[in-house]
């Protein structure tokens, strides 16, 4: 079962619970003293408070008189229902009716309550996790139309019967409990893991193939089985079934570890192929199903953002902790009916420049840069991301505030590390962004681009110092590097 668990050491949790229990007792006492006093203080003024509410109603004098003189009558009750919100008497409505002494007493008690509230122990960090609630499994029910308030018939624990051969779910539960040193646990998760990795009797063979296929898709854009979410009878057949089986067996033989699998694929001859197009081969196999070349693969939107942060020298390497909300332009936040809206006044600070894996994603508010580069919709499962090449991507690289800010940071880094000499700046930018030295032609064209931008900015911003135009021209060049295919594609 899912539960919110503390991330602090057990001894610290014990001390916190003791302090919290002590504080809660003090707070409840102070709250009770205030409530009891207020109840007695309001009694003499209840009629006057209601009369004041009636007098403030925007209705006729006859209806007001009816509410005052015959509150139990049918017409008065109908009126009271109509004006229920306006007639509701709250604590603040009694303040004008109390004496100066009572108001001072009230303020003192509220101040004392707030003082106790301010002493509340700071909460320990927590995380949502799976936890056991005893050795006996909790009852699970079918839910009518998916509504957890409408429980239907109970269901028993079990696995997919199509993926069980020669063993029953009870065999897995019994084995997991027998090997466990914790009698207070159901061992459900362990039994599930055993079944998922059981090659002979469980789902292990299928799970290995699915994982291998997902990794292959990550590197090549499509899996050996193109329907990555469907390995059933109606799935797309694998293009290279022997390769899929061999990779799955190597994955299992390597202890189900992903890093060796990535290394195996990335050092293979098929991965190291050229991406060049061959018209003759394309005529025979236009979809590249036979893997006669490596299809250019654009990096994911999260990696693109992280790459810009890294080369600009502004990536915040902090690990763990809560998610961070990245700034999003207010005009891009169009979600409605939200009780907890995405903030529109966030600033671009070092705290927001952490890796994209730590970004907070609100399901109804997509980050525009991520969305342009095919970031998945957080409202649905995504087995395979679309890989599009559309005009909004070029516009995002040209106009997005985050991209421009990182280009300026990149330019400042280059100017600081390479000095003022243009060729040295160009070479350093090329090495940092693309991991190689520029060719003579690239050096010539790049230098010409920077000089042209410098001249244009000097002409356009004639009232500004020449150093500003020089730095902005370098930032323009850095932003152009971000838009290069070599920067945004795996090559």
Largest sheet: 2 strands, antiparallel
Instruction: List unreliable stretches of 5+ residues.
Output: none
| Helix content percent band | 40-55%
Q: Please count the beta strands (DSSP E, at least 2 residues each).
A: 6
Order of helices and strands: EHHHHHHEEEHHHHHHEHHHHHHHHE
- Number of structurally distinct domains: 5
Radius of gyration, in Å, reads 33 Å
Give the termini separation: 44 Å
Number of helices: 20
- Report the β-strand fraction as a percent range: under 5%
Strand order of the largest sheet: 1-2
- The dominant shape is extended
Give the rounded overall mean pLDDT: 88
Assembly classification: single chain
Structural class label: mainly alpha
What is the secondary structure topology, with strand pairs?
Blueprint lengths: L1 E5 L3 H33 L3 H10 L5 H9 L4 H9 L1 H4 L12 H19 L7 E5 L9 E4 L7 E5 L13 H11 L8 H9 L7 H17 L20 H13 L4 H9 L12 H6 L12 E2 L2 H12 L55 H5 L18 H9 L1 H18 L3 H13 L5 H21 L5 H17 L2 H4 E2 L1
Antiparallel strand pairs: 1-2, 3-4, 5-6
Helix pairs in contact: 1-6, 7-8, 9-10, 9-11, 13-16, 16-17, 16-19, 18-19
Q: Would you mind describing this structure in some detail?
A:
Helix 16 packs across helix 19 (466-482). The protein has helices at 10-42, 46-55, 61-69, 74-82, 84-87, 100-118, 169-179, 188-196, 204-220, 241-253, 258-266, 279-284, 301-312, 368-372, 391-399, 401-418, 422-434, 440-460, 466-482, 485-488, and strands spanning 2-6, 126-130, 140-143, 151-155, 297-298, 489-490. Helices cover 51% and strands 5% of the residues. By secondary structure, it is mainly α. It folds into five domains: 2-118, no CATH class; 142-196, no CATH class; 204-284, no CATH class; 297-384, no CATH class; 401-490. The radius of gyration is 33 Å and the shape is extended. The strands form three sheets. Strands 1-2 form a two-stranded antiparallel sheet. Strands 3-4 form a two-stranded antiparallel sheet.
């Amino acid at each position: 079962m899912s539960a919110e668990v503390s991330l602090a050491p057990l001894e610290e949790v014990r001390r916190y619970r003791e302090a919290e229990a002590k504080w809660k007792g003090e707070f409840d006492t102070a709250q009770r003293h205030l409530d009891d006093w207020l109840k007695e203080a309001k009694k003499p003024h209840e009629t006057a408070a209601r009369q004041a509410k009636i007098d403030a109603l925007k209705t006729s004098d006859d209806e007001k008189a009816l509410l005052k003189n015959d509150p139990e009558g049918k017409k008065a009750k109908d009126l009271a229902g109509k004006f229920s919100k306006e007639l509701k008497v709250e604590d603040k409505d009694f303040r004008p009716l109390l004496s100066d002494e009572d108001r001072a007493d009230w303020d003192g008690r509220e101040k004392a309550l707030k003082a106790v509230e301010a002493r509340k122990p700071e909460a320990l960090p927590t995380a949502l996790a799976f936890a056991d609630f005893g050795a006996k499994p909790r009852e699970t029910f079918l839910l009518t139309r998916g509504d957890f308030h409408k429980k239907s018939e109970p269901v028993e624990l079990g696995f997919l019967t199509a993926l069980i051969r020669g063993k029953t779910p009870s065999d897995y539960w019994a084995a997991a409990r027998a090997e466990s040193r914790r009698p207070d646990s159901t061992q459900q998760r362990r039994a599930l893991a055993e079944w998922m990795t059981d090659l002979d009797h469980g789902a292990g063979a299928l799970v290995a193939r699915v994982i291998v296929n997902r990794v292959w898709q990550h590197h090549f854009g499509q899996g050996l089985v193109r329907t990555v979410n469907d390995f059933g009878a109606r799935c797309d057949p694998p293009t290279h079934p022997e390769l899929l089986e061999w990779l799955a067996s190597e994955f299992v033989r390597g202890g189900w570890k992903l890093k060796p699998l990535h290394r195996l694929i990335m050092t293979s001859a098929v991965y190291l192929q050229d991406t060049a197009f061959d018209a003759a081969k394309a005529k025979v196999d236009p979809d590249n199903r036979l893997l006669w070349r490596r299809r250019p693969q654009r990096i994911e939107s999260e990696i693109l953002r992280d790459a810009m942060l890294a080369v600009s020298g502004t990536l915040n390497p902090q690990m763990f902790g809560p998610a961070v909300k990245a700034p999003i332009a207010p005009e891009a936040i169009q979600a409605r009916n939200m009780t907890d809206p995405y903030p529109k006044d966030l600033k671009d600070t070092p705290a927001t420049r952490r890796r994209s894996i730590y970004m907070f994603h609100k399901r109804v508010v997509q980050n525009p840069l991520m969305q342009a580069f095919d970031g998945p919709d957080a409202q649905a499962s995504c087995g395979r991301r679309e890989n599009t090449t559309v005009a909004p991507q070029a516009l995002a690289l040209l106009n997005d505030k985050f991209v421009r800010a990182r280009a300026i940071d990149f330019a400042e880094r280059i100017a600081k590390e390479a000095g003022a000499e243009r060729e040295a700046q160009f070479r350093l930018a090329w090495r940092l962004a693309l991991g190689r030295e520029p060719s003579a032609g690239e050096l010539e064209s790049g230098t010409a681009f920077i000089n042209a931008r410098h001249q244009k900015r000097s002409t356009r911003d004639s009232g500004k110092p020449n150093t500003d135009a020089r730095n902005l021209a370098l930032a323009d060049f850095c932003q152009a590097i971000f838009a290069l295919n070599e920067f945004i594609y795996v090559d």
